[in-house]
Write a structure and sequence with these properties.
Shape of chain A: globular
CATH superfamily of chain A: P-loop containing nucleotide triphosphate hydrolases
CATH class of chain A: Alpha Beta
Largest sheet of chain B: 2 strands, antiparallel
Largest sheet of chain A: 6 strands, mixed
Number of helices of chain B: 11
Oligomer: heterotrimer
Shape of chain B: globular
Strand order of the largest sheet of chain B: 1-2
CATH architecture of chain A: 3-Layer(aba) Sandwich
CATH topology of chain A: Rossmann fold
Number of helices of chain A: 10
Structural class of chain B: mainly alpha
Order of helices and strands of chain A: EEEHEEHEHHHHEHEHEEHH
Number of domains of chain B: 1
Strand content of chain B: under 5%
Chain lengths: 234, 291, 291
């Protein structure tokens, strides 16, 4: 579904991604794990078109999207739940969801999908008129996920959905991610919480200073000594 | 006397408010003080004059024509002088580029129209009315009504329409907005267009009200309107309206009760005080330095 | 000396060479604030006017010797630089730009109403004390001290603030004190240039020190190279000579200034000799390593 071929990305003079390659197969949850600053967020931003790779290519459903504008990429079916949630804090919950469906014109479908989000996250329904900035961290994460779902993506990019959340909430969020995947959305999940990520993923890659250093099925990585030592705390 | 001055202050202030809206909307989205905005206002005044005297349009159509012309001008300025810098250069460079556009446009008008002040022909029949001690003209009423319509229209657009919501989303988090599928460049162009149209309306009305227009009229008016935007809280649309009208009142009151020789210093003194005491302005949110 | 020189050199050229010198001093001051430290100041003419008026009044009304008066004018300008520098600590770049404009405007309006300064008419009959030797002697001193400063630890910290204020702060650079220092030193040079100007021209009035003057000085720094001493000198030389060559087309000249700023920002945001980038980066990394 998505192929990343030897992309190189620079931030000014900093070489953030070095010939990175990996693949996301349709229907899977694929996770990229790695430490802070390894290049995980950069990778997702590059796929979404917010950053341009200097070399290499990104292929989505056999289409080259390396130089495609961010809004076109959303239109092709890739949406993102960005790091730190990034909800529109002075807009209401409802308006945030509407923004997620910005490119869609089917009023009926949008209304249905908002209902679906509310069924999945009843707390958001109660707060639909509230400003998003007044929600708790967990609620904002739910809103960010709901907002990304509003674009009806076939591939969803998720950047550290567990960041800053209490363990119980993290569990809840991860079971929601699994559920979204079971309903047919492919997921590329970036996480520092390697244990949680590997527990729901099918395929996994380990990224260090802008390079993929290890890859395999999630099970393989869970059992790998290197991963255990570096990312699973033992 | 007081009520009379208050009315005059509100009339002057509504023109500051119309210009301030453009500053505040653009600043909200791209964090740039669009220095050329005052010149757009000046071009609006001249475009209106051209449409009335040379083309022979009635004033209402000339006002709309001037707004349309400035929309285009605003979009072109953004394309040529700001967009190439966006994301690549520092904010300092963008600001300097904006100053360059401002100088370019005002001197362009000097070359086209010369430096002598001009004025609109007597196209509107102005009648004066008396209400108690307050004297007002039909022109003042028209200006206040048009300003109110424009501001209410803007507020509705930003609150309710799709593009309006996209503008708000961009002003809060431009990257997240792009991730929603919003074409950020288009929203920015649209913002420049709307802001420029409002400034043009202000330019035409001020030129008729004070019976004078000249190529450098935008420099001072633009800077003062920026002060008004800061006073109201930069980035806040209601703030620009409140700030503009407050500044108009303070200026007129300052001249009436203190001294007229310091008129042009009032706006800047307010600016400096606001920035020291309450940098987020009357209605703005706290300015947080992004790390 | 001047008399001797004028036997060999055309007085017109002598005059231009002298003005180049004064402009170099002024631009070096602005370069410290804007080019080196990255604090956009668009009111340098304000400091210039303080130095000019103070020193002129001292020599004319109080019979103070020229060097003392010159120093007095520079100190007054530096004092104001200190007070302008203070609030800037809390402000982001473009707000600061507006405050500096506001400050220069307030100063200008003040001198327009200032009795000992001759109000709008200005001061005339200022003794012509500024000579070729004083100007170029002071240029040499200013360049020497500037170069010393910029290669010192303090100088590196100035650059660090421009490149990334938050990073500089986290490296232990006291950005607060340094920004004020840059303002004080820069405005001192502004005042010095103003004093030299007043005692060369015989005559000053508030309009000499208007916004256009500030922009002209800013242009010198931007054109030559932000933060580079040779660049600033080149900018001052070019922008003093060019207008003389283009004197016939005065209006086009300003338009050219405006376009120049935009084009420079798009293609060479660091100016002609501003290729100090790699060098800056090295310094920045060097600074990072120390801590």
């Amino acid at each position: 579904m998505l192929q990343i071929n030897e992309i190189e990305v620079y931030y000014g003079a900093i070489h953030a991604l070095k010939k990175m390659s990996f693949e996301v197969e349709q229907g899977n949850i694929v996770t990229l794990i790695g430490a802070n600053g390894a290049g995980k967020t950069t990778t997702l931003k590059t796929i979404s078109g917010l950053l341009r790779p200097k070399n290499g290519s990104i292929i989505f459903n056999n289409q080259d999207i390396t130089k495609t504008a961010p809004e076109k990429i959303v239109d092709l079916g890739i949406s993102q739940v960005p790091e730190g949630r990034r909800v529109f804090s002075t807009m209401s919950v409802m308006e945030n969801l509407e923004m997620g469906a910005y490119l869609r014109r089917d009023k009926k479908g949008i209304a249905d999908d908002i209902e679906n989000v509310f069924t999945r996250f009843p707390r958001l329904k109660e707060r639909q008129k509230q400003m998003a900035g007044t929600l708790s961290g967990g609620e904002q994460q739910m809103l960010a996920i709901g907002r990304a779902l509003m674009a009806r993506p076939t591939l969803m990019l998720m950047d550290e959905p567990s960041m800053g959340l209490a363990p119980l909430l993290v569990k809840e969020i991860f079971s929601i991610i699994k559920e979204i995947n079971e309903r047919g959305t492919t997921i590329l999940l970036v996480e520092q919480n390697a244990h949680m990520a590997l527990s729901i993923a099918h395929q996994a890659y380990v990224i260090e200073t802008g390079e993929i250093v290890l890859s395999g099925t999630a099970q393989e990585l869970l059992n790998s000594d290197e991963v255990k030592k570096a990312y699973l705390g033992g | 006397m007081f009520w009379q001055q208050l009315l005059n202050g509100i009339t002057l202030g509504s023109s500051y408010a119309l210009i301030a809206l453009g500053y505040t909307m653009v600043y909200g989205i791209v964090q740039l003080i669009n220095f050329a905005h005052g010149e757009i206002y000046m071009f609006g005044a001249f475009a209106g004059l051209f449409l009335v005297t040379v083309v022979g349009l009635p004033i209402g159509w000339a006002l709309l024509g001037a707004m349309a012309f400035c929309m285009l001008l605003g979009v072109v300025v953004e394309r040529v002088a700001y967009r190439p810098l966006r994301g690549k250069s520092s904010r300092l460079s963008a600001l300097i580029s904006a100053i360059g556009v401002s100088i370019f446009l005002s001197t362009l008008m000097v070359i086209i129209a010369g430096t002598n002040p001009r004025n609109y022909p007597d196209i509107i029949k102005i009648s004066n009315y008396q209400l108690g001690a307050v004297q007002f003209s039909s022109l003042q009423i028209i200006i206040l009504i048009i300003s109110a319509i424009l501001m209410i229209g803007l507020e509705l657009m930003v609150r309710r329409s799709r593009i309006g919501k996209a503008m708000r989303a961009c002003s809060q988090d431009i990257e997240a907005a792009a991730l929603m599928g919003i074409n950020v460049n288009r929203v920015i162009s649209f913002t420049f267009a709307v802001g420029s149209a409002l400034a043009a309306a202000g330019g035409v009305m001020v030129a008729i009200y004070y019976n004078a227009l000249w190529p450098y009229m935008g420099t001072m008016a633009g800077m003062k309107a920026f002060c008004a935007a800061v006073l109201g809280g930069i980035g806040s649309i209601p703030g620009a309206m409140v700030g503009g009208i407050s500044l108009g009142i303070m200026e007129i009151m300052g001249v009436a009760y203190l001294s007229s020789s310091y008129k042009d210093a009032i706006a800047f003194a307010i600016l400096i005080l606001v920035l020291i005491i309450r940098p987020q302005g009357l209605l703005g949110q706290k300015i947080v330095k992004k790390v | 000396m001047d008399a001797v020189l004028s036997q060999y050199i055309d007085p017109y050229f002598l005059r231009i060479i002298l003005i180049i010198g004064i402009n170099i001093i002024l631009a070096l001051g602005l370069n410290l604030i804007t080019g080196v430290t990255g604090q956009l100041s668009m009111g340098h003419a304000g400091f210039m006017s303080l130095g000019a008026y103070t020193s002129a009044i001292l020599t004319m009304n109080y019979g103070v010797a020229f060097p003392t008066a010159l120093l007095g004018g520079s100190l007054v300008a530096a004092l104001f630089g200190f007070f302008i520098g203070l609030p800037t600590l809390r402000l982001q770049g473009d707000y600061l730009a507006m405050v500096t404009i506001g400050f220069a405007e307030i100063i200008r309006v003040f001198f327009l109403n200032f009795e000992p300064g001759g109000k709008a008419v200005g001061l005339s009959g200022i003794p012509q004390e500024t000579t070729f030797l004083t100007v170029w002697g002071l240029v040499a001193v200013a360049v020497f001290l500037n170069a010393r400063l910029l290669s010192s630890r303090t100088g590196r910290a100035f650059y660090a603030i421009r490149e990334d204020e938050i990073a500089a702060e986290s490296c232990g650079v006291n950005t607060t004190r340094l920004k004020v220092t840059a303002f004080v030193l820069g405005s001192f040079l502004g005042g010095l240039g103003g004093g030299l100007y007043a005692h060369y021209m015989f005559y000053i009035d508030p309009q000499v020190f208007n916004f256009t003057k500030s922009i002209e000085l800013l242009n010198m720094v931007v054109l030559g190279g932000m933060g580079s001493i040779p660049g600033t000198i080149l900018g001052a030389v070019l922008l003093t000579i060019l207008p003389e060559l283009l004197r016939v087309v005065a209006e086009y000249r300003l338009m050219f200034y405006g376009a120049l700023l935009v084009i420079l920002m798009i293609f060479r945001p660091n100016g002609l000799l501003g290729d100090v980038r790699i060098y800056d980066l090295k310094k920045r990394w060097g600074l990072g390593k120390n801590k």
